[in-house]
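Researcher: Good morning. I'm working through a list of sequences from a screen, and I'd like to move beyond sequence-only analysis. For each chain I'm collecting a predicted structure so we can compare shapes side by side. This is the next one on the list. No need for commentary yet; just the structure.
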Amino acid sequence: MGLIMEPDGSYVVLSDIQGSEDALGDMDFKVAGSARGVSAFQMDIKVEGITLDIMRQALGQAAAGRAHILTQMEACSPPPARALSSWAPKVALLSVPPEKLGMLIGPGGKTIKGIIAESGAADIVINNSGSIQIVAPTEAVLAKAREMIALQLDELPVGTILRQRRVSSVTLFGLFVELAPGKNGLVHLSELAEEGTLAEVPPEWKVGSLMDVMFIGTTADNKTRLSHKGVLLTDAGKPYSWAGPVSSSSGIGSSGRDRDSSSENRPGASSSSSSSGGSSSSSGGSRWYSGPGADGDGYQPRTPRRDGEAA
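Model: Good morning. Structure tokens for this chain:
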């Protein structure tokens, strides 16, 4: 801002002065700021003093000029991109309990290599502290890698529905569904139909079939439990509750201190408690099969014995 003042006290305030106006004028008043206000100013004057009226007018003209300049700058400058370029690599940081890293890595790195290959991730870096860095070419690949890691570690929120999962084996007490490379979960006979407990696995469910399942937690020995019944009831808008020796998961990124296997942490669960052995206090027996192969390790597909066949 500039100023031309006459001896009689009359004056003119100039905006955006040039060199000659600066040299021949009586004031050089620089005002800097944004649309919200003034952030700095500096003044050189050649007269004995500046009145409040001159300052008021100079600041008013400076605000109008600053607003005009900012408007022109915004018109030729694109707004900030709210997302990364589609060509930029996507990176995610996860935190898991360090004691579960061995489960994620697998023997000789087989499990983590399988996750990288199947998800399409560029790299997955695992630190001993439990932090995991995923690098992926797209958001879809990043999300798939995160889901596969959560499935591998049973770090899903209880009640999560997983669609179109492949049946890996059929047994006398239910069937196993593959969740991630080398990771299977049991769907017990009591969790196959919308009502009741089936006597055997229906013939339409065979190895290779695709099934929608719900994650309902893990057992005390870290075996994954799934439910098809929960999906059927949820999709129909009906309430679903389950019982059995399962514990809830805290989810990736949490400390795991607040894990609780009580029924109050299971959405829709009944208030009846179960004993440490997994037996319901009302029925007097476990609803989960506890015979050979029930732990999921080294199990072999079984078929019912024919009439008269020796055990």
